[in-house]
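LAB NOTEBOOK - FOLDING QUEUE
OPERATOR: T.R.
BATCH SIZE: 2
PURPOSE: Compare the predicted C-alpha cell outputs for two unrelated chains run back to back under identical settings.
PRIORITY: normal
REVIEWER: second-year student, initials M.K.

ITEM 1
FIELD SEQUENCE / FIELD STRUCTURE:
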Amino acid sequence: MNVLLQEEDCLHAVADQKGERLDVFCARASGETRSRMQGVLSDGGVTVNGKVAKANCKLNVGDAVCICVPQPVAMEVEAENIPLTIVYEDSDIAVIDKPQGMVVHPAPGSESGTLVNALLFHLTDLSGVGGVLRPGIVHRIDKMTSGLIVVAKNDQAHNALAAQMKTHAAGRTYVTIVEQNIREDEGTVNAPIGRHPKDRKKMAIVPDGREAITHWRTLARFGEFTLVRANLETGRTHQIRVHMASLHHPVAGDTVYGAQKPKLGLEGQALHACRLRLAHPRTGESMTFRAPLPGYFKRALIKAGCDVPAAEMDAWLDRLLDEERDE
C-alpha cells in the first residue's frame, strides 16, 4: 500500500490488493482496529475515489482511499444541577424520563446541559463501561425524542443490560404522531438503515445498511394525523423516523425526514418512549416502567384532532396499549 499523505485527521492511501474489503484495508492503512474503522465507515468518514463508501466495499488496485478519523476531543464532564425526573432508582440501575430537547451525553457542540451532566449531580455511582463521556449510558434516544432511558450504576449492571438490549430481552414502546391517515391497522418495516449516501447527518434505507426492523400499530386516527405505537426489534439511529417516512407517514414535527416546516406547533418530532421493559440485572425480576405523555405531545394531540382532555390522555393511552397486550 502507498500512503500518500497524512493530514491532521485524514489519511490518503492507494489500494494495492484487488478484492480487499474496505474496512480491512482501512485498518491496515491506519493502524486502527477493524471495529474502529467500521465505526468511522458507518459515519461516512471514508471515501473511495471521492465517493463515500461502505465497509464491505471491495477495492481495486489503484483506488484512492481517504480515511478521516475524528480526533479525540479532550473534555471534562462536570456535574450540573439540572432538574431530572428519576422514575426508579436502586443500587444497580436508574430509570430516567428524559425531556425533549436534552442531549444524552456530551459531544462537540453539546458539552454541557446533557443527561450525563445531570446524572453526575443526582446519582452517586455510574458504570464506567461507556467511558468518561458516557458513564452509565446503556442506550440512547435522540435529543428531540422524549421518554424512558435506563442507566447503569455499576459495570455488572451495564453489561447485563447491554446484553438484554442486544437479544431484545429488554424492550421499549414508543408512541408517535405521524402525518396523514394510516389505513392499515398494523405492519412491520424490515429495511436496512445506514448513513445517507449524500448527507452524513442523515440516515437512510440503503441496501448495504444494518438490519432494522420496526413493528407498528395504529392506535387512533385523526384524519390528517395518526397516533401510532412502535416497537423496535433493532435499535438503529433514527430508526422509527426513517421507517415511518419510508411509508410516506413521517413523524409529525420531524423536519429532517418530513416536512421542512414543523406541524402541530411542534419544535421537534412527536416521538415518546412511553414504556420500558427489562429484567433487573441483579435479581432477574421482570420490570416495566411507564412515562406519562409530556406536555408538548398532549398539545400536539389536541391540535391533531384528539378530543380526549389532556388530563385524561395518560389513562386513555394506557387503555389503548393494554388492550393491545391482552389481544
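ITEM 2
FIELD SEQUENCE / FIELD STRUCTURE:
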Amino acid sequence: MDRHSGVAPDLKEELKLEQKQQPALSVHDRDVARHFDDWTDDFYIKWWHVDHVHFGLFEGSESLVKSEFRADSKEFARGLERMIEAIVAPVMIEKDHHVVDAGCGIGGTAIYLAKTRGCMVTGVNVSTRQLEIARQKAAEAGLEQRVGFEYGNCSRSLPIASDSVDVVINIESACQYSDRGRFLREVRRILKPGGRIVATDWLMSDGLTASQIETYIRPMYEPWALQSMESPSSYIPLLRNAGLKVLEFEGFNGKDSDNPRLLQESYRMLKGLEFCWLMPARVRPMMEKVRTLEVAWSNKCFELGRYCAVKSE
C-alpha cells in the first residue's frame, strides 16, 4: 500500500493512465479538481463525514453530533443517507439497473445504493484523490463487482456508453461544472430511453438584487471553486434545452434547515480553535469558506434545489 494515500500502487497507476486518456481540463475544471484533491482529507473527511460529502436531512438529535465534530458518527450518517433517499425517491432503482453517480465524491452514495438496492453503480469524478479513496472503500466493502469508479470531467464528457444507463444521480456537484448544459446533454446521451436523472444542487435564490448577488453569492465562488451559480428559474431551461423532460423541480421546504445551523456551529467552533491557537494551520482557510456559505444560506440568498428529469421514450 502507498504509505501516504493508503491506496494500492496499481490503483494509482490506473488513475494516471485514465487521466492521460482524457481531454485536457479547462482552467476552472483544474481548480475544481485541485479543490477536492487538496481539501478532501483535511476538511471534508475530517470535519464533515468519512463517507459522504454533501448535506443531509436530519431528525431528532442526528445533527447535534457535529458539535463534537464526529466525522464517523452513525447518527449523523443517517441524516446524510436520508438525503440520498429523498433524491432517489422519484425513481425506483432496481437490482438490474445501471446507475451513474456523476461527481461521485469519495464513493459514499455509490456504495450506499449498491448495498441497499443491489444495483450496479459507476461513479465518475475529476478528483484523483477522491477516486483513490472511493475505490479503496468499494474494495473494503467487498463491492468491486458492482461498484466501479471512472476518472472523468463531467463538464465535458461522461466515460459511459450511449443509451446504457437507467439512472443518473448528481448530488451537489453540477454547481462546480464549467458547462452544465454540456453535462446535461451528456446525461441525455448515456441514459436509456425512459431513463432519469435525479439530482440536488446548490442554487442562488430567484429574484435576488444585484447587491445581494455581490454581497452573498459572489463571495462563495472562489472558496468553493464555483464559476457561476444557477437559480431555479435558470436551471429548468438548461434541462429542457438538453432534451430532458422535467418531471419535478423543488426545494426541501425547510426540511434542510439544520444544515445552515451546522455550518454556523462549525464556523464558531473553528473560530474558537483559532482563538485558542489549537486550529491546524492547514484548516484555517476552510473556516472562511464555511462562513461564506452559511451567511448566504442564513440570509435566504442560497438554497438547495432538487429535480427529476427523464429522457423521452
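REVIEWER COMMENT (ITEM 2): The beta strands are 98-102, 120-125, 147-151, 165-171, 191-204, 244-250, 302-311.
FOLLOW-UP: none requested
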